[in-house]
Amino acid sequence: MAISAKLKAGDSFPTIEATLLDGNKVRLGQPQGEATWQAVFVYRGKHCPLCTAYLNELEGYRQAFSDAGVDILAVSGDAKEQLEVHLENLNISFPIAYGLTESQMKSLGLYISLPRSEQETDHNFSEPGLFVVNEHGNLHVVDISNNPFVRPELGALSRGLVWIRNPDNNYPIRGTLDY
């Protein structure tokens, strides 16, 4: 049985870069602009209609995340050409990156799947994952799935991040107790 290392809440987020369509590298977990936190949404790739729908839905919550001081970045293991084709079905304004390697997927503790056929995609791909990285570079919220049907509900997530980020709530990183 293979053992997969999963990131734990409170861990330092690993240094991982992917590429934006303009060719610039982006570091996952490093917020842009005014935000001090970043939500990294790892999606399966252009072959997944559920990912397309989720990313388009996420666009509707972009302002709620921004109001909470949380930047959004989406990334997959797709190639540049696959992302270019995928953008025809996406209506998003947040950054989206490509080129996440299988090694990087493993360092994030993501579940990795084989394509069912060449028509699906031409590479192994990660299943969905969400990593919310705080201003200290630590993993504050983590959600990984082994299939495309289980993902955080975006309204609850955005409201929860507002609550977590409110200093009056003094809400710590949860799930840090080791067994």
Automatic annotation (TrEMBL):
<dbReference type="Pfam" id="PF00578">
    <property type="entry name" value="AhpC-TSA"/>
</dbReference>
<dbReference type="GO" id="GO:0004601">
    <property type="term" value="F:peroxidase activity"/>
</dbReference>
<feature type="domain" description="Thioredoxin">
    <location>
        <begin position="7"/>
        <end position="166"/>
    </location>
</feature>
<keyword id="KW-0560">Oxidoreductase</keyword>
<protein>
    <submittedName>
        <fullName>Thioredoxin peroxidase</fullName>
    </submittedName>
</protein>
<dbReference type="InterPro" id="IPR036249">
    <property type="entry name" value="Thioredoxin-like_sf"/>
</dbReference>
<dbReference type="InterPro" id="IPR000866">
    <property type="entry name" value="AhpC/TSA"/>
</dbReference>
<keyword id="KW-0575">Peroxidase</keyword>
<dbReference type="InterPro" id="IPR013766">
    <property type="entry name" value="Thioredoxin_domain"/>
</dbReference>
